[in-house]
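(Deposited chain)
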Amino acid sequence: MSRSVLVTGGNRGIGLAIARAFADAGDKVAITYRSGEPPAGFLAVKCDITEPEQVEQAYKEIEEKHGTVEVLVANAGVTRDQLLMRMTEEDFAAVLETNLTGTFRVVKRANRGMLRARKGRVVLISSVVGLMGSAGQANYAASKAGLVGFARSLARELGSRNITVNVVAPGFVDTDMTRALNDDQRENIVKQVPLARYAQPEEIAASVRFLASDEAAYITGAVLPVDGGLGMGH
């Protein structure tokens, strides 16, 4: 049965792969994007999740065209990498505002319809960095670690309403961002990964789709690492 699915930041990379996975399964997929031209084949809604009014307007448009959001994948995120001594207040606040507070906004708005329907699936996209830490990414790691506590609190809060809340924590993924690294940087990263390769975006998408499926109905508050073994023990 076709569901109404929203993927934030679904215009490229991991988000686009997730959107395609749900569309291929027959779901009605909406994506949010902040800039550029959105990909064809989805209900694309321009939305900056740091702006509450834009989040509200995006949901109204999606609900009019696809109905109440039944599956939310909170994927939108930013980085502003810098060593702590050089990191500005703005660098720190901007990353948390998008990655953590922005996620709060989109989940809270989706929760309204899910509570009425007494069912729903929420999947938050964190990162192995949120579990292990990474030099030069204190802001990003803090924001992605925060998603774990946020998800687990909501899993306890919403479980009795048949709403599951889970986290996927990708490792290094073969996207435009990692392709911009030079050969030495890419080789050093791969050396840290037991499976000795980058993930494909489709592998992250498959895990997200599983957590939103009927087969995962008894999984909530979980953190699923899809990192080739990089974060074992964290």
About this structure: Strands lie at 4-7, 28-33, 43-46, 71-74, 120-125, 163-170, 223-226. The longest strand covers residues 163-170. DSSP finds eight helices and seven strands in the chain. The chain has one domain: 4-222.
